[in-house]
Amino acid sequence: MLKDLTARCQGKPLFVSDELPHYSTVLGELFHQLVSPEPTGQPGRPRNPARVIDEDLHYATVHKTREGGKVVKVERKVVYGTELDIVTRLEKSPSKTINTAYVERSNLDWRLWDAHLARKAPTVARSMRWLKAKFAICVACYNLIRPHETLSRGEDRIFRPRTPAMAAKVVDRRWSFSELLTYPALCQ
Fold it and tell me: Between the CA atoms of 89, 93, 98 and 103, what dihedral angle is there, to the nearest 10 degrees?
């Protein structure tokens, strides 16, 4: 997933996740340079090149401490990059703090819109092909059709419907379901 995401991005995005260690490992594998050590002049096999993580990689984690089912403490940790670099990047984003709120909200929406993605659901996805197709429609609706409250209210607090695709300047207006379902690239 991360390899696909980074191939589509211009530059490196700011990565924020929970503390699952696999993210750090994969990001380190995707964004590094191999630096060969200086020859020692000694006989024997040369040392292996060292992996140096790219300086412009910014990755932070969020740790939530829960008591009685409620979050009582949130700790943020910078894994790659510096705190100053991450704060600078956050100033240009809708969120002003390191958090996982956007991805958690997206995951909740996907689980609500598709019973096959819900936790502990009695449904069974019988075909991965159809599950992927249905999920692609959900993602397209989320990004192209459904206006989002936080994107639609300007500083004057007047509601002007905007979708994530409009905010990213991918499209200039909200799509209809008819346009989405008849778009040629999606019908292949």
Answer: -130
